[in-house]
């Protein structure tokens, strides 16, 4: 058994339209929770590609990242499953594109909802993680970082030889 500790790398999209934020309502081991469109980084993709893919899979909307909100660390411990995971979350802002009614939502996603920051702030017990509100607060504070601050070496985007 390896003693090497690793975080779980995830991506998320903060999407605002007319003062409301796009969230997903999803089934979790802890019950029905709210989250930004988010998920895990997959092999052979950049962080920006991952957030575009996850947003499409969870909302059926095309998403084009235009900026980077920040990198967030959060620890999750489930009292139900005893799972204990530290997440490294790269959060993006961008443009929400076309809706594809033929695109099925990921397993566990119940629906998408648009909520004001105050509505989100009023129900922290429903948040998938404390990072949900932290990211909205940073967005509202005007934080934006350029996408080119994140570098993906070409070796990440290809499968290793012989695989």
What does this structure look like?
This protein has 163 residues and is of the alpha+beta class. The protein has a single domain (8-145), classed as Nucleoside Triphosphate Pyrophosphohydrolase (Alpha-Beta Complex). Helices cover 17% and strands 41% of the residues. It has three helices and eight strands. It has helices at residues 47-59, 117-121, 131-140; strands at residues 8-14, 16-17, 20-28, 31-35, 38-40, 61-77, 84-99, 109-116. Strands 5-1-7-6 form a four-stranded mixed beta sheet, sandwiched between helices. Strands 2, 3, 4 and 8 form a four-stranded antiparallel beta sheet that branches. A hairpin with a 2-residue loop joins strand 3 and strand 4. The longest helix has 13 residues, at 47-59. It is globular. The model has no long low-confidence stretch (mean pLDDT 93). Keywords: Hydrolase. This is NUDIX hydrolase.
Itemize the secondary structure elements and their pairings.
Layout: E1 8-14, E2 16-17, E3 20-28, E4 31-35, E5 38-40, H1 47-59, E6 61-77, E7 84-99, E8 109-116, H2 117-121, H3 131-140
Parallel strand pairs: 1-7
Antiparallel strand pairs: 1-5, 2-3, 3-4, 3-8, 6-7
Protein name: NUDIX hydrolase
Keywords: Hydrolase
């Amino acid at each position: 058994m390896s003693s090497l500790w690793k975080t779980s790398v995830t991506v998320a999209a903060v999407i605002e339209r007319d003062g409301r934020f796009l969230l997903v309502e999803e089934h979790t081991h802890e019950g029905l929770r709210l989250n930004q469109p988010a998920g895990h980084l997959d092999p052979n993709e950049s962080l920006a590609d991952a957030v575009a893919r996850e947003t499409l899979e969870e909302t059926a909307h095309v998403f084009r990242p235009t900026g980077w909100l920040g990198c967030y660390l959060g620890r999750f411990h489930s009292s139900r499953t005893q799972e204990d995971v530290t997440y490294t979350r790269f959060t993006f802002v961008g443009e929400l594109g076309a809706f594809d009614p033929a695109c099925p939502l990921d397993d566990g996603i119940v629906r998408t909802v648009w909520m004001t920051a105050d509505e989100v702030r009023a129900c922290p017990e429903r948040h998938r993680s404390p990072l949900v509100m932290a990211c909205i607060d940073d967005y509202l504070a005007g934080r934006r970082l350029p996408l080119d601050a994140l570098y993906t070496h070409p070796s990440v985007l290809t499968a290793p030889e012989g695989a």
